[in-house]
Write a structure and sequence with these properties.
Elements: H1 2-17, H2 19-27, H3 34-49, H4 57-71, H5 75-90, H6 99-117, H7 126-138, H8 144-160, H9 170-173, H10 185-202
Helix pairs in contact: 1-3, 1-10, 2-3, 3-4, 4-5, 5-6, 6-7, 7-8, 7-10, 8-10
């Protein structure tokens, strides 16, 4: 589980490093707590399993997600925890993470977030940032050193494309048509997840 452990560490570090940026993005449309929530949540997820000798990828991810949910029971914290826990359920019994398993991991992460939050693609949420990245991984499962940077690029482009979308969920939706002017903070989190994954696969 060395790669999965490193991924969680990278996520924790990236969320901390980008905490202020997430606060600023969220502050324009929400209550400014996204940066702190993501930094605290992913740190809790990593700390829960950082010293674990668990070889089951599913159990590893599930326990990390459960720890995150307990640490940051906010809306976005709960969504990210749900993603991790659902990925854990999907990979229960898996001990080797190849390209196909990583694609399953992120597809299940996406499904867990969608199931909990009830959002759909095109509604200006985290899902819009993550979905193209998942597709990129699924189309290149044979080589994660190629697929991971492509997924990160896809997530970045998807995040930028949220400007112009009409928000259907959260505080931003209250702004109605004015919400089209803003980038979605949740999609920015998806970018950081895929940047962390790319870093992990390229080491």
């Amino acid at each position: 589980m060395a790669e999965l452990k490193e991924l969680l560490k990278n996520w924790a570090e990236l969320m901390q490093k980008n905490q202020q940026r997430l606060i600023e993005l969220d502050g324009a449309v929400g209550d400014s707590d996204l940066g702190l929530t993501m930094a605290d949540g992913f740190r809790a997820a990593y700390e829960a399993v950082g010293d674990s000798a668990e070889n089951d990828a599913g159990k590893f991810a599930y326990f990390a997600g459960k720890a995150m949910g307990s640490a940051v029971p906010s809306t976005m914290g709960t969504l990210m925890a749900s993603g991790l826990m659902n990925a854990g359920k999907e990979l229960r019994g898996v001990e080797t993470m190849d390209g196909s398993q990583w694609a399953r991991f992120f597809r299940a992460f996406y499904a867990g977030v969608q199931s909990r939050g009830k959002a759909q693609l095109g509604e200006k949420t985290f899902l819009d940032g993550l979905y193209p990245a998942v597709e990129a991984l699924e189309q290149n499962t044979g080589d994660m050193k190629t697929a991971a940077p492509l997924a990160a690029k896809a997530a970045q482009e998807a995040f930028e494309a949220t400007r112009g979308m009409l928000a259907r969920h959260g505080r931003m939706a209250i702004r109605g048509e004015q919400s089209r002017e803003y980038l979605d903070p949740g999609a920015a989190v998806a970018v950081l997840l895929m940047e962390g994954f790319s870093q992990t696969m390229m080491r």
